[in-house]
Amino acid sequence: MAYSKSSGTHETGAWVYIAWLLWLAAVVGVAIQTIQGALDGLLSYLLTQGLAFAAGLLSVPLLNRVSAPNLLILVPVWLFGGWYSLMSLKLPTFWVLAPLICYASALIGGGVVVGLWERARRRKIS
Question: Residue 110: how many CB atoms within 10 A of its CB?
Answer without folding.
Answer: 20
